[in-house]
Write a structure and sequence with these properties.
By secondary structure, the protein is α/β, with parallel strands linked by helices. Helix content is 37%, strand content 19%. The chain has helices spanning 41-59, 63-79, 81-92, 96-119, 169-176, 190-206, 223-230, 243-255, 276-295, 314-328, 338-353, 380-385, 406-415, 431-444, and strands at 7-9, 12-14, 20-21, 36-37, 125-128, 142-148, 152-155, 181-184, 214-217, 236-240, 262-265, 271-274, 307-311, 333-334, 358-362, 370-371, 374-379, 397-403, 419-425, 445-450, 457-459, 489-495, 516-518, 535-537. The strands form 7 sheets. The chain has a 7-stranded mixed β-sheet, with helices on both faces. It binds NADP nicotinamide-adenine-dinucleotide phosphate.
Amino acid sequence: MTVTGQMLIGHTAVLGGQGSIHGLAAASGEVLQPAFGGASAAELERACALAEAAFDPYRQLPLAQRAAFLESIASHVLGLGEELIERCHLETGLPRARLEGERGRTVGQLRLFAQVVRDGGFLGVRIDPAQPERQPLPRVELRLRHIGLGPVAVFGASNFPLAFSVAGGDTASALAAGCPVIVKAHSAHPGTSELVGQAIARAAQSLGLPEGVFSLLFDSGRAIGQGLVADPRIKAVGFTGSRTGGVALMQIAALRPEPIPVYAEMSSINPVLLLPQALEARAEQIAPAFVASLTQGAGQFCTNPGLILALEGSALQRFESAAAAALATQAAQTMLTPGIHRSYCQGVAALAAHAQVQTLAQGLAGQGTQARGALFATSAEAFMGCAQLREEVFGPASLIVRCPDFAALQQVLQSLEGQLTIALHLSDGDHPQVRTLLPLLERKAGRLLVNGFGTGVEVAHAMVHGGPFPATSDSRSTSVGSLAIQRFLRPVSYQDLPEALLPAELSSGNRLHVPQLIDGQGPISPTTHSPTGAFTHRS
Ligand code: NAP
């Protein structure tokens, strides 16, 4: 396959008629060929019409066929081979090894959702049999299952050009839920997007699926992305990116005559708490591990450790010295886009210029769009008094907050917005303090982890990659792991529907062998209990 600059509207490759965009080589800034035609309003209309037409036939396919589609996408993505890795490396500057790993995660996610679909537990089937003899009134028969919400718009992330983009977690979970998907390609990796889009279209065609099950649009401005969210045929949105972008799309969705859910993953500084006994015992071990997590992938992970909280004292001084020494030798790394590099440099400059912030260390200087790591420190009082210090600086920068006592540390935590992760470094002797903190930590973050850093996100059944606003727009959900399918489902209850009219998964004989909760008894599972391979990657 080759990159042609064309979008995909259903099965048809189309050169968009509204302006054009170019990919840029992340490392050199060179303009890449070909140009990508942006979608026109008419092309958006066509993609939405096809998605709407595909919804009923697609969602009513046998579950095995839906699962086969996801597996076929995985095979076709793998079939893109070196061309995909090469183009993605060029557009993002991410190392090949990282991209090969991310491709493995992408394929693994698709296969995981195929298992989820085959298992049928995600349907959440519940049956309350009729009780005609019940006194004083008979009970009706109720049967419940979940169906897809309808066509879903997906906005992929710049920092995960494979695993959170065209065939990434949002697309995989929406397709698994029975929802057609229209992806608005990220302008930071258009060629990668086209290649992966072609793989999905080939999978759909090879299985004879309704053509509107997938479309890929390029946008030469903001009108097509915004028009997509506003279109009445779109019933949910998946987004990963900036807080500004996520909030803009949330507002459009909320102002529609029929508002729809937007699952936006936006901003998180991922606090790391160094508990006193752990810090005393292991300051010199924790520091280099922290720096490795901070600088990996030029710090462009949504779970990057942007904040360290600890009590003042000699142990914290030892940690600061060790972290500063480790950071000072770290090479600068190419960032994803000139825009992300610019924002990072502005964020670091603002911290360095802040009167109450001390610069502890910087990594080695780079060139072009390379980012050097940066480590800062401030007091608890200054941190709580300045909202700017609590904002995400996307990249390898982190701020240590020195707390005079445990009460101050609790106040600092209380002042934080919602987070994707909070990491705790603790020893056995720290348990009483941690026990005190846990209720507050649970209210602040989607995932609490111990003696590690949030940058490893397991794609699994018990993973939550989510959290209170602004980490996400809806803290009830996760964008990673099998539970992500729940975002695109809604329950439908069937009262006294004749057996002959019931969907197969609700049949009395349970012909499909899906998990059923019958009269409150039985194996109910929101997704699946089947074992799966685990895929650990950064996010
Ligand atoms: P972004 O600028 O929000 O873009 C994400 C996607 O949304 C892109 O497709 C973009 O279109 C589109 N978009 C953004 N604002 C829009 C608007 N107002 N209306 C319609 N569409 C809009 O995010 P990014 O470029 O990936 O990264 C920029 C910043 O996002 C980073 O500096 C970082 O702060 C944050 N970020 C956070 C995470 C996280 O997981 N927490 C991950 C990645 C990035 P275009 O392609 O045309 O720009």
